[in-house]
Specification:
single chain, 142 residues, mainly alpha, Arc Repressor Mutant, subunit A, two-stranded antiparallel ribbon, 2 strands
Length: 142
């Protein structure tokens, strides 16, 4: 399940993707339009800036804007940054692998085998889910 932080990050990024190459967007505008608490949004946007997904401009006319092109940012990147592992079990995680305590032998574990398939399909869908495609699926700007 996605955390509130991750969902807010996705909403903010989709909003910024709608405004791509239109100049910086003030944090209050994003907070108001996407109904995200401003203090929480500040922390999220700073994290996205540190990850080099966003950039910010200070002063009059300042705000946040996408550093990467919308087609270069997918849900895998956002989810891993905000929430960590995508896999439902630690023993099938590509980036956050840990053996399961109750597993006797990973090689023959039928549960692990099933969840490797779930992980692979999930990663495929999330990789294809880029900001530009998300904007195209719901293009209206409030």
């Amino acid at each position: 399940m996605l955390s509130k932080k991750c969902k807010y990050a996705i909403h903010a990024l989709v909003y910024l993707a709608r405004r791509y190459q239109q100049g910086p967007v003030h944090i209050q505008e994003i907070a108001d339009r996407e109904k995200i608490p401003k203090k929480f949004l500040e922390a999220i946007l700073l994290e996205l800036r540190k990850a080099k997904i966003l950039q910010s401009k200070k002063g009059k006319g300042g705000g946040y804007y996408l550093l990467k092109k919308p087609e270069e940012v997918n849900l895998i990147e956002i989810i891993r940054l905000m929430d960590g592992a995508i896999a439902m079990l630690p023993c099938v995680s590509l980036n956050y692998y840990e053996p399961c305590d109750e597993c006797k032998d990973e090689v023959v574990c039928s549960i692990r085998t099933a969840f490797i398939g779930v992980r692979d399909e999930t990663l495929r869908i999330l990789a294809e889910s880029t900001l530009d495609k998300m904007v195209a699926n719901n293009p209206q700007l409030e």
